[in-house]
Each structure stands twice: as C-alpha cells, then as structure tokens.
Amino acid sequence: MTALEERYVMRTYKRAPVEFVLGEGVTLYDRDGEAYLDFLAGISVCNTGHCNPRVVEAVRQQATRLFHTSNLFYTEPGVRLAERLGESFQPGARAYLCNSGAEANEAAIKLARKHRRGGEIVVLEEAFHGRTMGALSATPQRAKQEPFEPLVPGFVVVSRDDPGALAAAVSERTAAVMIEPVQGECGVWPISDQMLVAAREACDRAGALLVFDEIQCGMGRTGTLWAFERTGVRPDVFTVAKALASGLPIGACVAGGEAAQVLTAGDHGTTFGAGPLVASAALATLDVLDDDALHARVCVLGDRLRAGLERMRGEGRLADVRARGLMVGVDLPSERAGEAARVVNDALDARIVLNATGPDTVRMLPPLIISEEHVDRVLAFMDEAL
Ligand code: PLP
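^ thats the input. predicted complex w/ pyridoxal-5'-phosphate below
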C-alpha cells in the first residue's frame, strides 16, 4: 500500500502506517484484524459511530432506488434535508446543499459578497475554513496560504480574543464576520462569549452577516446540535459538513432572515449537491444526532474526559486543557515540547486513534456514542504516555 501510494497518489497527506478495513461503532479494525478505539472519528465525521445501523439502512434503501438525477429535477431526500436543517435553525431559513466543508464556506462567502457587493469578510486568527481558494483566503495560516497567492482579496484578520479589535474591524464596508464558535484545526480553541457577542453587535450595527462555521464543532459535538446554541449568540448564516452524512461527502450552508433570500437561480450550484443518496444518509444521521438524551451524554462524557485531563494538568503533566463537550485539545508542557506526534504514535501502538494538530497539541474527537469505559481507557493511556 505504501509503495502504491508513493507511486500514484499526489503527496498531499502524511499518513500513519496503518490500513483500516472495517469500522463498527467506536472501533476500527486494521488489515490484521487488530481493533483500535477511535478517538478521532475521521476528524469529527463519524459522530454516529462507524457504520451506524440506522444510517447504513437508509443508504441501503436509497441505493437500491436512485443515486442521482441532477438538480434539474426534484428528489425528496435533499428537500427534506433542507427542511430539517432550516427547522433546526429558525422559521424561514433555507439551506444550500453541497459536498464538503470548503464548499459550504464558499457558498457562505458568495452569499456574503452578494449581500454586500465588494464587501470585506472579517475572520479570526488561526481560523480554518477549508482549502479551496475562497475558503483558503479565509484561513489566515501562512504556510497554507503562501504557496497559492494571490489569494481572493477582501479578507481582514483580527485577534480571536480581542472583542474591541473585532468591533473596530467591522464597518459598512464589511460583508460578513466568519467565525468557528470552537476553532478546531488549530488545536480546539473555544471562542469566548464576549467575542461572539461583539461580533453579533458589530454585524447588527454595520448591516453585515454573522457567519458561523459549524463544520467541526456542530452536529452534537459540543453537547448541543449546533455549538452556537450554548452561546446565546445566533448567526445569520451557518455552515455544516463533516458529520452531517456520517462519512459520505456533504456540506450545507444554512441561512435565516434576509440572508436566506440572497442567492437565487444561476448564482451557485454543484452537480452532486443534495443528491438523494447522501441526503438520505444525512436524514438518518440527524435522526441519531438531533437527540437531547445524546447531547446530555456528550456533556457527561466530555466532563469526565476533561476532569481526568485537568487532573494531569494540575500535576503539571499537561500545560493546557481546552474542551467543549467531546471536542478536546490538550497542550503538552514545555519539557515535552514537540512530542505530540510521539504521543499519537504511542496511542496507535496502544490501539487508540488520536491526532496531533501541531507539535505540542493532541486533539480528541471521538464518536458521540462512546461510553465511560472508553473515556477511562484513553485517560489511562494519557496517564502512561505523559
Ligand atoms: N471548516 C472547518 C471548521 C473545518 O474543520 C474544516 C475541515 O477540517 C473545513 C471547514 C473544511 O471542510 P472540508 O475538509 O470538508 O472541505
């Protein structure tokens, strides 16, 4: 597999030396039949667990009937999905369906630009909104952007922890402020309520749109269906992808109020968007994840994980613990600087899948169906690894 990859696959990914062939609930199996506890869930995608029976059944049923017809015709699952997403937000909301997170953000960027022609889009430092040119331009990380310049113009970057600076950056030239309520790729950084309130107030004052990127932190991950539900701040537009179809490619840009009317026929589109197969998977996924009892479990399990990690921080073995529900990032202390990859490798040896977001930061994004026992196994591993 390694030789084939080296020969034929564009070298855009660094992979761990393991080949998974099967997934079941919280467990992944490699080619030798070894079982791994998955604490990454395909980077916040397999929130329902691998091959969730309800999702599998929905896909199986739809797969025997119709894969695709194009957006020139009606098919029910995509329309029902838009209904479900809109109803989860507010009356009058509409959804545009596409195939990935970056595409969902492209739709939000185009929507914002049409809402205020030529307007700037304010983003936060360290944000990650995707790799396509618009989404990349909204992702102020030098190494990711620099090889691909010139970027799309009109993006303004502000500190993620300075409500005054954010307010000052928003004016009648601003089309939108775009924020991940919990930043994921840069190591799990929850954005403070003060920042979110400042963004909401500034957008209201300037007539700009507040866009939340819920691609990693949405779909129940933080203990509510949408992360913004816990903050009291509501966006005008939000984007979702990753976990929405449990692992089939999908994205959505959901808009309420006037923002729901901005994009009209001919403005935007994609061949596969709202296709019946993925939309069926998404409807079944929402049946599983839009569930108060599950959200309560996410909070209980997240608290347990955080408490265990906080104990290690109290003992000086971790420098920082940042958590919202089952979205967790931990920083290693200075004497272990650069060892995040080592911890992740040790985890793989111990048959646990984790992820390093940087040299010093380990991220945990388990399926939302884990149990106390799984949390305790990961805590025991971290105890040993540190
Ligand atoms: N936005 C956020 C917050 C993400 O975490 C990601 C992916 O990690 C994206 C956007 C891009 O999504 P995709 O990889 O599906 O294009």
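The chain is about 35% helix and 20% strand.
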